[in-house]
Design brief:
TIM Barrel; globular; binds coproporphyrinogen I; alpha/beta; two-stranded antiparallel sheet; about 375 residues; 7-stranded parallel beta sheet
Length: about 375
């Protein structure tokens, strides 16, 4: 940590494809490729580490977190590493008692039940997040410029949903009750999370060396576009603006899963600071309409996505066909990053994932040459 704080310069960037995908003038041989949840239980080398350690313990040990982050970069020729951590690390440091359980996923012992519980929340002690910046720093050094490094956080709405539901949910009825009944309290928590998330991302960039950041709003699609625009985008705006004031040149990717309605995208496109976009790119799920794509391309923003991860359970023939269709559709812009529509899961096979990476690169090159 001492070394990190007095550090001056990272290794020269050899492969900058992901960052370049945010600039139309950068040279282009093929689209970059990385995958959400590329570090995780489908990798035997991850399971080996996890067999002996609790999930948050792996996140909190910078050396282990960096090692897990690097695992997929050793398996595949990918263009980005995403730091191994979780969207629940931040609320854990703000007073929520969170554990990750084997079959259940996240479990929160003290969820927010009524607005009186908001008092339980406090800004994180900055010391308690330093391990994330340490892990990023170690990863960035170890990558030696061979690919870009991505930092991330959960979006306020998705993190709030876990804080209220107490874990994973099917109905999201508790958080919906909060939003429509305790609206004022909900907006207060969303704003607090937005401000703390911005600081967290700024530190990931300035202290850890993250080169791009992504915001995961995995449960964005649980409410209609109207409510997302009225209640959720204002807190996201605070997050984006606070971040861009400090890191104007770091690309920001928004993932509002199942919320790619054209109306929502237009709201995101309108958000600017000093005449520069606040959202530089959109991670898209597989249900995106042509209208939405056109808006993003006209707005000169980057597209990331969007192969349904289930396709990778299929035969090589269907995997190749769906990749080809995705590239024909999305690589019409130079600002394109190949990814899945959502994360890899423990049942994915390493060889199919390898086929996805190799085939995407091959077809992207061919398409470009056309
Ligand atoms: O490789 C990577 O992508 C980096 C690591 C990463 C990321 C980006 C992890 C590790 N989690 C996340 C983000 C995250 N965490 C999201 C947003 C992305 C998404 O929608 O998938 C969400 C919703 C979570 C919450 C969470 N944490 C879940 C999902 C539960 C649910 O409600 O469906 C789970 C299972 C966790 C624990 C977790 N985080 C990461 C891993 C590898 C795991 C599994 C732990 C294990 O059993 O090994």
């Amino acid at each position: 940590r001492e070394k990190r704080k007095s550090f001056k310069e990272f290794p020269k960037q050899i492969n900058n494809r992901v960052v370049d995908a945010f600039q139309s003038f950068a040279p282009f041989d093929r689209a970059p490729v990385w995958m959400m949840r590329q570090a995780g239980r489908y990798l035997p080398e991850y399971r080996e580490i996890k067999a002996e350690m609790d999930f948050f313990a792996t996140c909190q040990n910078p050396f282990i977190a960096a090692e897990i982050t690097l695992q997929p970069t050793k398996q595949f020729d990918i263009d980005a590493a995403i730091i191994f951590s979780d969207i629940l690390v931040l609320p854990k440091m703000m007073g929520m008692e969170i554990t990750i359980e084997e079959k259940k996923g996240p479990v929160i012992a003290n969820p927010l039940v009524t607005p009186d519980d908001i008092q339980k929340l406090h800004p994180p002690n900055p010391e308690h997040l330093e391990h994330v910046y340490d892990a990023l720093f170690l990863t960035r050094l170890a990558l030696q410029g061979k690919c870009n490094l991505i930092g991330f956080c959960g979006a306020p709405w998705t993190v709030f949903a876990y804080m209220v539901e107490g874990g994973s949910s099917k109905l999201f009825s508790k958080v919906k009750k909060w939003l429509y009944l305790y609206t004022e309290g909900s907006l207060q928590v969303l704003e607090l999370l937005a401000k703390e998330s911005a600081k967290y991302l700024i530190n990931q960039v300035k202290q850890g060396g993250a080169q791009v950041v992504q915001i995961f709003d995995s449960w964005a699609g649980q409410i209609p576009a109207l409510d997302y625009i009225e209640f959720i985008i204002p807190s996201l705006r605070i997050l984006f603006e606070d971040f861009k004031k400090e890191c104007p040149d770091t690309p920001l990717i928004m993932f509002a899963k199942d919320q790619n309605d054209k109306k929502v995208i237009i709201e995101f496109l309108k958000l600017t600071y000093n005449d520069k976009p606040l959202v530089d790119g959109f991670q898209l799920d597989s249900n995106v309409s042509d209208e939405t794509l056109i808006k993003i391309i006209e707005g000169n923003r980057t597209i990331q996505g969007n192969l349904e991860p289930g396709v990778l359970f299929g035969t090589p023939a269907i995997i190749k066909k769906r990749i080809s269709q995705m590239i024909e559709k999305l690589q019409t812009t130079r600002r394109y990053i190949v990814n899945l529509a959502h994360g890899l899961t423990p049942d994915h096979e390493v060889e199919k994932v390898r086929l996805f990476v190799q085939e995407s690169q091959r077809q992207s090159k061919l398409y470009k040459a056309k």
